[in-house]
Design brief:
74 residues, mainly alpha, 4 helices, 0% strand
Length: 74
């Protein structure tokens, strides 16, 4: 489990874009270790999931046919 001061430090930092490097420097550990802690222990990611349009079955089939046609031309 993570030390209490570590989780407190993370909650006090308002900007998540700069949190990894600054936290690693403050705790005197490597950036890669910090990324691992964020990913595995805190379940944080370096990106935000964006909503996208769903792919319909018809367009999926169309792409498959187009791809096979392109491969056949090679």
């Amino acid at each position: 489990m993570l030390p209490l001061f570590f989780s407190f430090f993370i909650r006090m930092n308002p900007n998540p874009r700069r949190i990894t490097r600054k936290t690693a420097k403050a705790l005197d550990i490597s950036k890669s270790s910090m990324y691992r802690i964020f990913k595995e222990h805190l379940k944080l990611t370096a990106y935000k999931k964006q909503p996208r349009q769903l792919i319909s079955a018809a367009s999926n089939k169309k792409w498959l046919v187009r791809g096979k046609t392109m491969l056949a031309q090679i």
